[in-house]
Amino acid sequence: MADQRTDPVYHREGQMYAHNTTLSSIAPLSSLPASTQPLFKPPPDTTKTPYILTSPSTIFHAQGGGQPSDVGTITLTSPTPDGNDPKFTVHQVRKVDASAAILHLGTFAPEEPRFTDAEVGLEVKQAVDVPTRVLHSRLHTAGHVLGLAIHLLSRAGEAGLPRDLRDGKASHYPGAAFVENIGLIPGDAKARIQDKVDELVAQDLGVAIHFWTGEEAGTKCISGLDGAAVGEGDEVRVVDIGGLGSYPCGGTHVACLKELGRVVVRGIKRQKGISKVSYEVVDA
Ligand SMILES: [Zn+2]
């Protein structure tokens, strides 16, 4: 089941919220290898049996690169001749191995119809939960903008930021979003960083996706090529913020910065030579 690679449509179409594909496989989570099962959280209702669904392509963002899974539903585009019309609620999506299928973990309502092997090959409709996806895309893009603001201030030697500051880890989870920088950012730089972020958002810069060669990405991107780098074959997927900064990235983003609302810099913490800047997005 997990051998067939899934086309991640969301890499090219970050604002596509519904998508038709086919059902490749459906099986209980318990049928996956014992080493893979713990990668999934139990579904919210633990009385329901968790299933794993795969398709040749998906618009569901697979957890990774600091961005959570999408949630949503997968249904048949039309009921089977005998009237089976299951609704699969997707709780978590993971790519266990870069060359393998993207795994959708979900449940069926009790006493309701389920996908079985009889439905394999039939056309299904994927629908991601739009408010959840939009929030994730805003938080993710805001992380890039915050990182870019810090980068620009650092290279200009402004606000007491060291000129050799480097990008570190980032997380874009709701309520826990931050970007890390290797080097010390003084606490009193917060207001200047906020101003710089506001300035970038006010310009309503466009957010573009490119697929570059590893060499091009290595030369032009602000942060290095690390575990977050994804792409097709030898290509690296890159997100570019208004031509001011590019980052290797596998996540989803807004199309332009005005969609972010307001990016609020929450605080700066320094530990062991690393500065962690927390943030959130609020409606403007
Ligand atoms: Zn990104």
TrEMBL record:
UniProt source species = Paraphaeosphaeria sporulosa
- Ranges for domain Threonyl/alanyl tRNA synthetase SAD come to 236-278
Q: Which domain of life is it from?
A: Eukaryota
Cite a single GO BP annotation: tRNA aminoacylation
Which GO molecular function annotations are given, in alphabetical order? Answer: aminoacyl-tRNA ligase activity; ATP binding
Q: What is this protein called?
A: Threonyl/alanyl tRNA synthetase SAD domain-containing protein
Q: Which cofactor does it need?
A: Zn(2+)
Give the matching SMART domains: tRNA_SAD
The UniProt family comment states: Belongs to the class-II aminoacyl-tRNA synthetase family. Alax-L subfamily.
